[in-house]
Specification:
The chain has 668 residues and is of the alpha+beta class. It has 20 helices and 26 strands. Helix 6 packs antiparallel against helix 7 and helix 10 packs across helix 12.
Length: 668
């Protein structure tokens, strides 16, 4: 009996437990249903278009608060910066006029985002209560109207596609100014870029239209509308205002172009006033150098008071020709031997002789690095002498160029400041790196490039220096910037900084100008170059009674031909004369004595071109490598002188998320 009773009670207990569990589950379901979901119940937007193009927008956003995301209030994000495909920016105006909650003024703050503004609505010290809350946001925004050739248009992103909540329903009312007549309308729903049509027009008269969605919009979905009306109702901005907009919208471009223009016009003005060469005189072939001017001095003047190692070479050859040195090339070593007597020489050449042979016991000098003190001293002495005698023939305008260098620095700083202000932090860092790192190498290499353009010799070396150390780093910098930015307009700050830097370097030489006396000397030198370059051939020179070509004339004018970079042409014109002179025994003895200042593997009588080229290039190369201490860099240089959218949304070419307005929001 007891066992039977116990067995009867067991199913009853199981049924009681089962009923209890079902009750708990039912209560949980009821509690969850009662708790509800946070969402936007209704998004009502009224847009009033002003005749000046401004919009007054009132948004009524009714949300269901469950103290999950929405605890103290909501966030409303609004984009104010739009990037076009070519990198230009459009920055629209946005001012909050009022914010209310359930009809009462509510605390809010406006925060800056990279591409817009965020309205943080609510009191940080106060929690909301569960239930429906209605927020009313009123704001003014500018530059939202598209002005086309035949119509004006408002292409307006009503809700934005950035909300983290579902939106049950959206209503949008667009009011145009009096007199406007709606010509076209369109609407789009969905995620960013979609063209769904889950909406309809509730009502419309001439200047007012009402849109409403026909389905719930999931999070990250929105409603965009577009309407067009006849021109003449809304005033477009004038040319001056558009220019002001562009300047401040694209501040990096504006400041960098302004900086480059400042550098360009400064240098152009200074060049126009002080750096232009006096007009050339009539160039007449002459057969003698300017009076009192050595070959080295002539090269120095011809290069606008610029000294290089070939200037030193011309002086050494002239010392040989005038009987003060003998140049010997043997076993790949070039040496000079002191000779007594000789013709009169100039102070600069005499200084070379004193440094080459400072003591009586010094008879010879090998042009090697081990003798850099004597060789470098002679080189410096010649340069100092030429500077003292001939710098007054030129205006270098270094002070004016120095101010230009300072303005170039300001231009680069303006470009970098604009980059820092306009670009978001990560991009700005990359663009600054790509702009800054090549600047100094580009400046220094541009000196070499400019000298390469203006030099009559050694320009290959100078171009190589400029390309390797300037152009290649600048190209890498541009590539680094290009991979970080969105369009060609965002490249302009870097391009302007590089251009201003190169312009500054180029103008260092362009600012040099001869005085009237210097211009006369240059004209004389140009006349001598014409003669040396032709060897006296041609009807014009023959009519001027050019000197007869003899070995003695070849030798005497050889230092000047080297100085003017025409030594090979000069030698070519005397090839037959020298060969004929060497053919006669008696003449050969006399000529050999005249050419006794050189000894080496090159025979002037058999190959005058090879002889001349070897003498010029070998001594120049030796001087470049031996006039500085071992382990230091050579001082060689060739010349050391110195928004609207383009297509309308109202015509059916738009999409959800397009046009002005938009943004999104969430709770906090």
């Amino acid at each position: 009996m007891a066992a039977a009773a116990a067995a009867g009670k067991s199913p009853r207990i199981v049924r009681m437990i089962r009923k209890f569990l079902y009750s708990l589950l039912f209560c949980a379901v009821l509690s969850s249903a009662a708790q509800g979901v946070e969402q936007i119940k209704l998004f009502e937007s009224e847009v009033e278009v002003q005749t000046n193009g401004d919009l007054i927008v009132t948004e009524n956003i009714t949300v269901n608060v469950e103290l999950r995301e929405i605890r103290r209030g909501i966030l409303r994000d609004f984009p104010t910066t739009y990037a076009l495909r070519d990198g230009r920016r459009v920055v629209i105006g946005f001012d909050v006029l009022s914010v209310q909650r359930n009809g009462w003024d509510e605390k809010y703050s406006v925060e800056n985002l990279y591409n817009g503004k965020r309205i943080r609505i609510g009191d940080p010290s106060q929690m909301l209560s569960r239930g429906e809350v209605k927020y009313t946001i009123k704001y003014r925004t500018t530059r939202q109207i598209g002005f086309f050739s035949d119509l004006d248009e408002l292409y307006w992103n009503v809700t934005g596609t950035g909300w983290t909540f579902d939106i049950e329903q959206v209503t949008a009312i667009i009011r145009l100014p009096a007199g406007a007549k709606i010509q076209a309308r369109s609407f789009y729903t969905g995620e960013q870029g979609e063209k769904k049509q889950d909406a309809y027009v509730v009502g419309e008269n001439e200047n007012v239209i009402v849109f409403r969605t026909s389905k719930r919009l999931p999070r990250a979905n929105g409603l965009t509308v577009a309407i067009a009306w006849q021109k003449g109702i809304v005033s477009p901005p004038g040319a001056y205002l558009r220019a002001v907009y562009f300047f401040f919208d694209n501040i990096a471009v504006s400041l960098s172009v302004l900086g480059f223009a400042m550098v360009f016009f400064y240098f152009f003005y200074q060049w126009f006033r002080y750096g232009r060469d006096p007009a050339k005189g009539t160039i007449i072939p002459v057969f003698e150098p300017p009076a009192g001017m050595s070959a080295a001095a002539m090269r120095y003047v011809d290069k606008y008071a610029s000294y290089d190692n070939k200037t030193f070479t011309a002086a050494i050859v002239e010392l040989g020709v005038k009987g003060h040195l003998k140049i010997t090339e043997k076993d790949n070593v070039t040496s000079v031997e002191r000779r007594d007597g000789g013709k009169a020489i100039y102070d600069g050449e005499d200084a070379i002789k004193r440094h080459f042979f400072p003591k009586e016991k010094h008879k010879t000098l090998e042009l090697k690095k081990e003798n850099h003190v004597r060789i470098g001293g002679a080189n410096d002495a010649l340069k100092a002498n030429l500077t003292r005698l001939y710098d007054d023939l030129f205006r270098h305008n270094y002070g004016k160029w120095g101010w230009g260098l300072f303005l170039t620095f300001v231009a680069v700083v303006l470009a970098l400041f604009g980059i820092a202000v306009q670009f978001r932090s990560g991009v700005a860092t990359d663009v600054v790196i790509g702009t800054m790192l090549p600047i100094i190498p580009l400046l220094l290499a541009s000196f070499a490039l400019n000298n390469g353009f203006t030099s009559r010799s050694d320009n290959g070396f100078l171009f190589s220096i400029g390309i390797i150390f300037g152009i290649i780093p600048a190209a890498l910098g541009l590539w680094y910037v290009w991979r970080s930015v969105d369009g060609i307009y965002e490249m302009i700050p870097t391009i302007c900084a590089f251009a201003a830097t190169m312009l500054c370097a180029f103008y260092l030489e362009w600012m040099e100008a001869p005085t009237p006396e210097g211009r006369k000397a240059l004209d004389h030198i140009e006349g001598l170059r014409e003669y040396l370059n032709t060897g006296g051939e041609g009807p014009r020179l023959e009519a001027l009674n050019a000197p007869a070509r003899t070995p003695e004339l070849f030798e005497r004018m050889l230092p000047y031909a080297i100085a003017l970079d025409v030594e090979n042409t000069w030698a070519e014109k005397f090839k037959n004369v020298l060969a004929a002179a060497a053919a006669g025994a008696a003449t050969a003895v006399a000529t050999g004595a005249a050419m006794s200042w050189y000894s080496g593997k090159h025979d002037w009588s058999k190959d005058s071109g090879s002889f001349t080229s070897a003498v010029s290039s070998s001594i120049t190369t030796v001087v470049a490598s031996s006039s500085v201490a071992p382990g230091t860099s050579s001082n060689y240089s060739g010349s050391s002188s110195s928004y609207s959218s383009s297509s309308g949304g109202s015509s059916g070419g738009g999409s959800s998320g397009g046009g002005g307005g938009g943004g999104g929001g969430s709770g906090w």
